[in-house]
Amino acid sequence: MFTLSPLPFELSALEPHISARTLEFHHGKHHQTYVGNLNKLIAGTDNETKSLEEIMAVSFNQPDQTAIFNNAAQVYNHNFYWQSLNPAPTKPGAEMTQMVVDSFGSLEAFNEQFLATALAQFGSGWVWLVLEAGKLKIVKTANADNPLVHGQKPLLTIDVWEHAYYLDYQNRRADYGKNIIANLLNWNFAETQLKS
Ligand code: FE
Question: Do 63 and 104 belong to one domain?
Fold first, then answer.
């Protein structure tokens, strides 16, 4: 059985960029619901003893297991999103900065492309910084989809489902994305992922 991972910060820690009220619903209701649904779906099956990563791998692209994939991936994606946010601004270290420069030209160019990709995702989904074949890339995924099942290693993500920003920003996804990129993106976590 899976349990809801606690947030790695206080509910109000991301204010004014993301409110405690948004986190209360996003973590306490949306994320919790994915955990509860997944537990119901895997009860009494082989999946009960598997990790989230294993469940995603076996259920991906299986038409009869869409609900299992969606809920497992959404549990994983949200765990990853909370860790991608840091209450205080962080900066990439020397090695990560070099990789960012190699792939995007500059940190500013990365920031612009990350935001543009978040805006380009039509409807619900996620924008990710990933490692693929030794290079950094920005990708977007729709709904519950996830870079892991496409052979990419996720380093950072922003949730661009409306439930992530609607209470604070209504329809203004760009402002939500800009504020995260400027103030909350957790480069320390990205570096930990890079080395894992
Ligand atoms: Fe979400």
Answer: no
Residues 6+ apart with CB under 8 A from 40: none
Going from the Cα of 18 to the center of ligand 1, the distance in angstroms, rounded, reads 13
Q: What is the mean predicted confidence (pLDDT) over 73-102?
A: 97
**Number of C-beta neighbours around residue 98 at 10 A:** 11
User: Do 79 and 136 belong together in one domain?
Assistant: no
Q: pTM for this one?
A: 0.97
Domain residue limits at 67? 20-83
Q: How far is ligand 1, taken at its centre, from the CA of residue 161, in Å?
A: 6
Residue 112 Cα to ligand 1 midpoint, Å, equals 22
**Three-state secondary-structure class, residue 129:** strand
Burial environment of residue 147 by CB neighbours within 10 A (0 to 12, 13 to 18, 19 or more): buried
d(CA 177, ligand 1 centre) in Å = 14
